[in-house]
């Protein structure tokens, strides 16, 4: 138990140190490129907290990042690489728009039907690379990346053929019905009920991963597939289950984003939230309980960078530097490893004494 506690402490510490180092490096870069470094530093660090609407922007951005981070987390815990969450998110938004426009239902029931429809489609999309891998030994990374293009242009065709509003004056669907909208819950912001669903989803996935047989099978198959087979775990079931659950969350995330943040579907390109989910899951070390922390961090630096680029001479691309550094440190398994070994040895000696 002591070793497990040390490992959990180490995982959290590694994330916090990686975030601190990445922010420190960003501050150094700002100092080097800005004509007014101190003002720019203050804008980046404190700009996102200078108004209720800006704080709301952080939380609004963190909601879809939390969902896609959870989706990727489940897949990667099973040692399955699948980038089709991006396609699941996009098609989930398309399906949500279609159900909202063409299937009038009472408030409450309408949202549940949309979440279910979008989630099922998202799950089916993410199952495709898994089936191709099992049946034809296709590389799941390549197949999932290519699948995103198929889903993207298929979704745009559906919107353009059946949902586009020719009276809008730009590429956009018909207005989403009021009975399907997710209501805002914080005045003067666009923070919507999706944040409650996100929190419940984090709790649910945590319980599934650490309190159920399925979660144990997913984690065991991800760590050692051969040992999992030896102990009677169906690796094939784990592969399909992890992809389906992750895809369901990704599809549902697309519907929640559309119903909470938009009046019409107006994506003309991939929103990239699925790929951001890979960053979030990596920062969180594939721990569901750490996903919201990583999502808030990424949302914070992106909002800060956006404010920085609009009000100072520092380019917005600097956020990519911070993301890359943070991911590199978190993904480096030996980063702070000596500290963990020292703590474990010390705990063992103390127990012997």
TrEMBL record:
The chain crosses the membrane at residues 12-35, 55-76, 88-107, 113-132, 144-164, 191-209, 230-253, 318-336. Keywords: Cell membrane, Membrane, Transmembrane, Transmembrane helix. Pfam families: BPD_transp_2 (PF02653). It is a multi-pass membrane protein. Signal peptide: none annotated. It comes from the Bacteria. InterPro entries: ABC_transp_permease. It is found in: Cell membrane. The keyword Transmembrane applies. Its main location: membrane. This is ABC transporter permease. It comes from Enterocloster hominis.
